Amino acid sequence: MSSFGQLCPIFSSAVGTLAMSWAVLSCIDVQAQPVNSLLVGQSPILNRRGNESLIFAVPPPPPDIGEPGQRSEAGSRGCENRNKPLASVSQKQLTALVPVYSDSKLVLGTTIAAHPTFWFYVPDQPPFPGKFVLRDKDGKLVYQTDVTLPKTPGVVSFSLPSTVPPLLIGKQYHWYIKIYCKAQELPAFADGWIQRTSLNPALKSQLEKATPRDRVTLYAANGIWFEALSTAGELHRRDPKDTTWAALLQAVGLNDLVNEPILNPPY
């Protein structure tokens, strides 16, 4: 059984080109509208300080991605509240910390890592078992594992182990996180897509020289979600007063999770 929480290293050796469109995302649950192209070094947020907003630039969505996904379990009562009326439930839902495209509801984030880190908010407590599943675009199983859920609600992270075949650049993969509330019952789940991309040499050079806080800004300005989030998460673990984590979540409409704790394994 695997557990959430092991962070993978950021892979920056890949080279190539990265064509991205960008958008200023408002702090609501409607996320991405590409506006125009962003060149490396021209981001208006590279010198962001204090509580100023962080901009996340969304890459153009793949034209043939398939089912859009589900960032959170819409309408769910959660495992703890399955027998309560929905109107009486205020508990937050199982939620993947990923962007959503407002026009298509596509749940998609890009990564530069061969074995990226996934982040989730888990509201339910044991004894509910969990499972993480990753499939390729054609539905072929790439990896699945049972996961140890935390004893208290909070944000957890899970990295693909190095024993799993590396994600291929330019390919899309479909991930699922499932919580089994009861036997013989459909699980609570969230699902979405991840695509690995490559770094162009100019951006790679900037990242190598940047501070962790500025790396978050550079990743976000170039649409690289998973590394932006993992770097911001590590900043928040070291200094809970750092505003980068909150600003990044707000940039993709996850305002309600800003103050949730990031949990450390073992849970």
Compute the average pLDDT.
78
Q: Name the shape in a single word.
A: globular
CATH architectural name? Sandwich
Query: Which stretches of 5+ consecutive residues score pLDDT under 50?
Result: 5-51, 85-90
Q: What's the CATH first level?
A: Mainly Beta
SSE map:
Elements: E1 2-3, E2 21-22, E3 36-37, E4 95-96, E5 108-111, E6 117-122, E7 130-136, E8 141-148, E9 154-159, E10 172-179, E11 188-196, H1 201-209, H2 212-221, H3 225-238, H4 244-251
Parallel strand pairs: 1-8, 5-11
Antiparallel strand pairs: 2-3, 4-6, 6-9, 7-8, 7-10, 10-11
Helix pairs in contact: 2-3, 3-4
Q: How would you describe the overall organization of this protein?
A:
The chain is an alpha+beta fold and 267 residues long. Helices cover 15% and strands 21% of the residues. It has helices at residues 201-209, 212-221, 225-238, 244-251; strands at residues 2-3, 21-22, 36-37, 95-96, 108-111, 117-122, 130-136, 141-148, 154-159, 172-179, 188-196. Strands 1-8-7-10-11-5 form a six-stranded mixed β-sheet, with helices on one face. Strands 4-6-9 form a three-stranded antiparallel β-sheet, with helices on one face. The longest helix has 14 residues, at 225-238. The model is unreliable at 5-51 and 85-90 (pLDDT under 50).
Short key terms for the protein model shown above:
single chain; 21% strand; 267 residues; 11 strands; Immunoglobulin-like; 4 helices; alpha+beta; globular
